[in-house]
């Protein structure tokens, strides 16, 4: 199953010419794929010695199937080194998964809302204020779900906007975050909706530690009928992409 990433972020020096660092990156990526594919869609890993230790994290969206998760992780691990030329900090986002490695252990367990990929639908809703209110309601529900202990860091729900249109929302944190750090990450992400999303038909903000998204069609699993038909993956031709840098 071939997948396209929705965005990537590369930073720091390139280790492309350092065979030991390259070997460590390749090991970490392979280990993440193997562990997360069989371990419920989340894993961390590390390899290397001294100042060239590489740390990694991989996570699938909590609602996708094990087979889709494994396929997404395999694609991410294959694309990330070439996309980022083995840079010291490399991250790649897909609809179904996220993979990161870095020459720094500090990112594991910490809420990171520095770098991110934001996708904004090019179409706006007619009644902007009412729509933003509906978005606010659904995001309040899903962020509370995701930050609750025992939720696995995932929330999804819908809110009626008009008799014929529902707003579908999803929130997720990486599973290395404690509930409070998850809540902080999601709060920061949702607070950016006003800046980036306005009353657009759909918007998603993907950070390294959490992601929030709403659409006027079903996009999370199980896909429900109605709402103009569900679409599990993002049609990138209908979204403007913004890559946020620290």
Gist of the model:
With 246 residues, the protein is α+β, with helices and mostly antiparallel strands.
Low-confidence stretches: none
- Estimate the global geometry from the Cα principal axes: elongated
Task: Tell me what the CATH architecture of the largest domain is.
Answer: 2-Layer Sandwich
Number of strands: 11
According to CATH, the homologous superfamily of the largest domain is: Gnk2 domain, C-X8-C-X2-C motif
| Structural class by sheet pairing and helices | alpha+beta
CATH topology of the largest domain: Killer Toxin P4, Chain A
- Number of continuous helical runs: 5
Percent helix among the residues? 25-40%
One letter per element, helices H and strands E, the order comes to EHEEHEEEHEEHHEEE
Radius of gyration, whole Å: 18 Å
The percentage of residues in β strands lies in 25-35%
Model description:
With 246 residues, the protein is α+β, with helices and mostly antiparallel strands. Helix content is 31%, strand content 30%. Helix 1 runs antiparallel to helix 2 and helix 3 packs antiparallel against helix 4. It has two domains: 101 residues, Killer Toxin P4, Chain A, CATH 3.30.430; 129 residues, 2-Layer Sandwich (Killer Toxin P4, Chain A), CATH 3.30.430. It has five helices and eleven strands, in the order βαββαβββαββααβββ.
Highlighted features:
single chain, about 250 residues, alpha+beta, Killer Toxin P4, Chain A, six-stranded antiparallel beta sheet, five-stranded antiparallel beta sheet, 5 helices, Gnk2-homologous domain-containing protein, CRR_secretory_protein, signal, repeat, secreted
